[in-house]
Amino acid sequence: MAELSIGNYSFREVGPRRYVVSVDPDKLREAVELVVKEDSYLSTISAVDLPKEGAIELNYVFWSIKHRAALIVKTRVSRERPVVPTIVDIIPGALGGELEAYDLFGVVFEGNARLRRGFLVPEDLTSKGVYPMRKDAGV
Amino acid sequence: MRLSVIREVLRNLARRPSTLAYPVRREVTVAPGHRGRHYADLMKCIGCSLCAVDCPANAIVMEKLPQQLKHNPRGIYPVVDYGKCVFCYQCVFVCPVKAYVTSEHFEMADYAISTSRELSLSSIRVGGQA
Amino acid sequence: MLRVRTEGEEVVEVSVNTGYNHRGIEKLMEKNSWIKGMYLAGRVCGICNAVHTQVYVQGVEKLMGVEPPPRANYIRTVVMELERIHSHMLISAVVAEIVGFDTLFMLIMRDRERVMYLKDLVTGSRVHADIHIVGGVKRDIDEVRRDKILSELKVVEERLKYYRKVFEEDYTLVKRLTEVGRIRTAEALRHCLVGPTLRASGVKSDVRFDDPYAAYSEIPFNVVVRDEGDSWARMVVRLEEALVSVDIVRYALEHLPQGPAVPKAFPRAAKVGEVISRVEAPRGELIYHIVSTGGGNPYRVKIRTPSFLNIINTEFTYLGHRLADVPVIFASYDPCISCTERVLVVDEKRGLKKYLSLRELARWGTT
User: Fold this and answer.
1) 20 to 30 Å CA-CA from C197: which of A128, B33, C77, C227?
2) pTM recorded for the entire structure
3) ipTM (interface predicted TM)
4) Other beta carbons within 10 Å of C273
């Protein structure tokens, strides 16, 4: 089907078994809580740096066993203040993805006490405060 | 309680060992079609440099030909650095004239042939005709 | 690296400290062309290189609007399943070694060599397949090779059945693997585990079945699920899956469609767009998110390997077990061992700290 409704969020189909919805960061937790109830697990958190638009786009890719489809929740944060609420209390399995996005892009997940630099990035870059996957990182 | 492996072990005592005593006895065989040492046949190469462009290991450098060859107007030929090469054979695949000579030779731990230069140059036949 | 806090013999807390080398690969892919990126993707992991190349090429083909011919899809499937067989044999051997059963380790490795030879026959190398290209495969399978694979598979199948029997019945293995590292169904989903780890906890989720790619939509096969959820179930799931893979390869080779498999040319620029590409690697779901802004290089490639989820999110499974169970549980998740070989053990009560390699921890106490 071309559209999938979960709660009052309407996902649009972008390919076979791929549905996308865009939300604001403050609605993220609500959307995630609804998606998790659809028998789904978080597959990955993919961050894309968009310097031209001054934003970092976060893609929360869920796989729903009930719908047999990937449900992608997109949200954008500004590059100057990339803050988004954590979902680790809803899905403990999001830990790795949030640690990674913080260490590589500098996205701060509010409420996640285990965020730290040096999870993946070696010391010579963390000591300079460089987020290596950003487009202007110079690595 | 089943010691199911004991029978297997006793059977193996009667067989010859599976370990190959390489390099004392050079009985290692690779499958036919194994990706081994390759070089460009200069009687076919047209100097298009697609192999150098595509090489993921940046192992191919184009060098000037020592003599003029009619079918190679640019006068350049590829030299593969076997130290960098990963033997993915992208060069072999992308070559428009299928100029690469492939082999299954894998024993390359020597300095004598560390690039494909000598092998390619020795492929030039007298007369320079394709 | 695992940081294990114990009180005497009992594990109290575990935290995982990892460092992966494929982060550099994501950045490298942005600086290199699509075709070089394909070879980079294959080098993320040595043992699952065919699946990494497959998921990348699949995504890129969607972005470039290229459809590979059916014969190429079947050949790709054959290579990926051969890889699954030898990967599962490897982890079975490693678990046997960690438990102390060296003989079984050697036996499985000897038979694994047969599968490596078959990979060499089809792709040209025992480890790195490098057989994918945008729009198809680089080599075809002829009659001689096909017959050789089918005859060798008969022997491999017999050996796999034997090893499954050993894992199901051998006293030492059963004693050390059952009831160790048990994960309940709800926990497995909440902690986002994937692959055989998830399927051994009662969840029927397999990308080849749910989200088919390559030739899987045309090949009938079973998804192996068990509900014990412990290390033993995980190993048995893998060995059963290896047997299912043998059937898949056999079916694919017997029903190989006619037609070309090797494309004459391939495009070098992709359209604007993004794609989420998923495959079932031997360790679980592998997902790539590829973003393209047109042009010859990707804009962003996000790689999420299955071991990332299975290792980081399973810190809770070690609690309450003895120290000797830690390597067994860890190895049953099929980690890419090169990533996390070292374990730091902190004994709270006695104030001891010790750095050990996984093998040392497994052999501690033996001479």
Assistant:
1) C77
2) 0.92
3) 0.93
4) 16
Please, what sign has the CA dihedral across residues C79, C85, C87, C90?
negative
In order along its 367 residues, chain C shows pLDDT tens digits of: 778 888 888 888 888 877 654 567 888 899 999 999 999 999 888 888 999 999 999 999 999 999 999 999 999 999 999 999 999 999 999 999 989 889 999 999 999 999 999 999 999 999 999 999 999 999 999 999 999 999 999 999 999 999 999 999 888 899 999 988 899 999 999 999 999 999 999 999 999 999 999 999 999 999 999 999 999 999 999 999 999 999 999 999 999 999 999 998 888 888 999 999 999 999 999 999 999 998 889 999 999 988 888 888 898 999 989 888 988 998 898 887 544 445 566 666 666 677 777 677 777 666 5
> Does the beta-carbon distance from A120 to C302 stay under 8 Å?
no
A41 touches chain C (CB under 8 A): yes
Partners for A (CB, 8 Å, 3+ pairs)? C
CB-based contact C308 A49, cutoff 8 Å:
no
Can you tell me the distance from the alpha carbon of C204 to that of C198, in angstroms, rounded to the nearest whole number? 8
Sorted by where each starts, the structural domains of chain A and their CATH numbers stand as 3-93 (3.30.460.80)
Asked if C35 lies within 8 A of B1 by C-beta distance, the reply is no
Cross-chain CB nearest to B34 (options C33, C124, C169): C124
For the record, the structure tokens of C81 come out as 């399943």
Q: What domains are there in chain B, each with its CATH number?
A: 30-130 (3.30.70.3270)
Q: Is residue C44 part of a domain?
A: yes
Q: Which residue of A has its CA nearest to C26?
A: A133
C204: in domain: yes
Task: Report residue C185 as tokens.
Answer: 């169904």
User: Residue C122 falls within a domain, yes or no?
Assistant: yes
Look at residues C331, C306, C305 and name the one whose alpha carbon lies nearest to residue C317: C331
In a domain, C234, yes or no: yes
Q: Chain B: list its partners (3+ Cβ pairs within 8 Å).
A: C
- Structural domain of C240: 32-293
B/C interface, count of CB pairs below 8 Å? 62
